[in-house]
Amino acid sequence: MNLIDFGMNLQEAGDAPRILHSGSSQPTGEMMKDGGFVSLENGFSAEARRALIRKGHTLQEVSGWFGGYQAIMKDLKTGVYYGASESRKDGQAAGY
């Protein structure tokens, strides 16, 4: 979404603060009953948080649920590969 909707490059997309929605209906048949909750990684402004609450979202603090990010992307027009590794964890993006 960050690449396409917000025009970020591969590194910017991985470093951007992340959103997690929990409590959705699941393919296993579990049905959402209360709208779930939204967790925001550090980096979102207080105004963004207030705006989500005004829209009816329930915010919940969580840590460690956001996973890691390493990515490789090939530009199909030029054939050039791009790599990125997020700044939150150790890691690297490698390709050949």
Give keywords.
single chain, 96 residues, alpha+beta, two-stranded antiparallel sheet, 4 strands, 21% helix
Cα-to-Cα separation, first versus last residue: 25 Å
Spatial extent as radius of gyration: 17 Å
Shape: elongated
Q: How much is the average pLDDT? A: 87
Largest sheet: 2 strands, antiparallel
Strand coverage percent: 15-25%
What is the tally of beta strands?
Answer: 4
Figure out the total of helices.
3
Strand line-up of the largest beta sheet: 1-2
Encode the helix/strand succession as letters: HHEEHEE
Any overview of this molecule?
By secondary structure, the protein is α+β, with helices and mostly antiparallel strands. It has a domain at 2-68. It contains 3 helices and 4 strands. The chain has helices at 2-6, 10-15, 46-54; strands at 19-22, 37-40, 70-74, 81-85. The strands form 2 sheets. It has a two-stranded antiparallel sheet with strand order 1-2. A two-stranded antiparallel ribbon has the order 3-4. The chain is elongated and about 45 Å long. It starts with a helix and ends in an 11-residue tail after the last strand. 5% of the residues are buried. The mean pLDDT is 87.
